[in-house]
Amino acid sequence: GNSVTQMEGPVTLSEEAFLTINCTYTATGYPSLFWYVQYPGEGLQLLLKATKADDKGSNKGFEATYRKETTSFHLEKGSVQVSDSAVYFCALSVRRGGYSTLTFGKGTMLLVSP
Amino acid sequence: NAGVTQTPKFQVLKTGQSMTLQCAQDMNHEYMSWYRQDPGMGLRLIHYSVGAGITDQGEVPNGYNVSRSTTEDFPLRLLSAAPSQTSVYFCASSFGTGTEAFFGQGTRLTVV
Fold first, then answer.
1. Distances from the Cα of B109 to the Cα of A16, A45, A55, B19, B81, angstroms
2. Alpha-carbon distance B20 to B73, whole Å?
């Protein structure tokens, strides 16, 4: 079956530090990969995505590269801000017949202090 | 500019009561889904729909029913609430396969 494994949190960083949140996956077929972010009290919103091997998704200074050889999609940001404090979810989507559904990791909480 | 709207935002039920969580989207999306979010478990898929009149089970469907009579609405029904259904519920919609999913703000349900 399909599954997503991401590093447990919380990840605690000082402002302007470098961020990496690891994500690996297992999937049958050729998944699309996503990072979603959830701010306190809100629903999830898409941060970035990649649909095929070697694609790089990027948004708001965050980046992740689809690595098929290592089945990974690690999230990185060069300099985090306090406003980046949130829970980050790695997810995959695989087409099943004519349908596809999202499979999520358990989420990683990021706490950034001034 | 509504997107995905869920109601209610908060609900407390007694064991055995029934209720319906409402979800509506105004983006003409074909795909709609219900997830539950529990601490340390991430989001787990309950039911999903790929269009009006078509629904299917996800990872954790037991205790929940859904129907999709229109493109816009996808209600989730709890027929006989149990404490194990205490959770935060999210509805999501998307245009199609592999595309961005848009989430509602969630419904926090407590069953006592």
1. 37, 21, 39, 10, 10
2. 12
B68 SS3 class = coil
Binary contact (B98, A93; C-beta < 8 A):
yes
Residue type, B89: Y
- State both tokens at B6: 């869920």
Each residue's pLDDT tens digit, A82-113: 999 999 999 999 876 667 788 999 999 999 99
E strands present in A39-107: 44-50, 56-59, 62-65, 75-77, 86-96, 99-104
pLDDT, tens digit (0-9, with 9 covering 90-100), for A4-47: 999 988 999 999 999 999 999 999 888 999 999 999 888 899 99
| Interface check B84 vs A, CB under 8 A | no
Residues of chain B contacting residue A43, judged by C-beta atoms under 8 Å apart? 4, 90, 103-106
Which parts of chain B register pLDDT below 70?
1, 97-98
Res B98: pLDDT: 66
Pairwise CA distance, residues B101 & A35, whole Å: 11
B2 near A CB under 8 A: no
Q: Which residues of B touch A103 (CB under 8 A)?
A: 45
Q: Could you tell me which residues come within 8 angstroms of residue B54 by beta carbon, excluding any fewer than 6 positions away?
A: B68
List of chain B residues whose C-beta atoms are within 8 Å of the C-beta of residue A29: none
